[in-house]
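Subject: for your reference before the review

Hello V.,

The reviewers asked for a structural picture of the protein, and I figured it would be easier to keep everything in one thread rather than splitting it across files. Below is the amino acid sequence we used in the manuscript, unchanged from the supplementary table.
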Amino acid sequence: MSLLDFRKKTVLYGGSFDPVHIGHIHVAKECLRLLPEIKELVFVPNYQNPDKTANQASSAERLHFLELALIGTPFKIWSYEIQRHHPSYTIETLTEAHRLGAKKSHLYWLMGADAYQNFEQWKNAEEIRNLCRLIIVHRPDFLAQGKDPEDILLPIRPHGASSSEIRERFYHGEFPEKSFPQALEKHLHNLYLQGEIPYVNFKK
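And here is what came back from the structure prediction:
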């Protein structure tokens, strides 16, 4: 992974990515297409979302899946949250980005409309707005509506891929073909054939 340069206009794309799929890549590509001034888009896999149940794949597995998924793309990965080994809060990640040279004028946080609707309940929500601008994209069944004039609503058509549905299919013994970038799909298919998919012992 190449080093991050927070002096550039940077989008941080946080999430569990459990697992990452083509819908995530679609959003990232459309973000760069619609906002050409952005120079870097960085995936930030969390260690554990404090508002959700435990991730089903381990941090190491999710990080490896993400590395495979991003082969051949311009996107980067920042494993800061995983390395901290405690519940991940956006305010702490943004504070670290500023310590590394970021400024609000050059820093953005990308989220789905489903997360955005509860943004006011996030830890230090107002302070988050002081550290970055929010970019919001539509999700299936969730259409974004702006809450602040600084927030950026991107008109990206929602992608049908869903991590929860992918986990459900794995749980029922199915392989969700065409849900992943090529290198990741090959890796997951091999795990599937070997009975080593991390999602088979869980349901949602």
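For the response letter, the relevant points are probably these. The mean pLDDT is 92. The first helix runs from residue 22 to 34.

Happy to draft the paragraph if you're swamped.

O.
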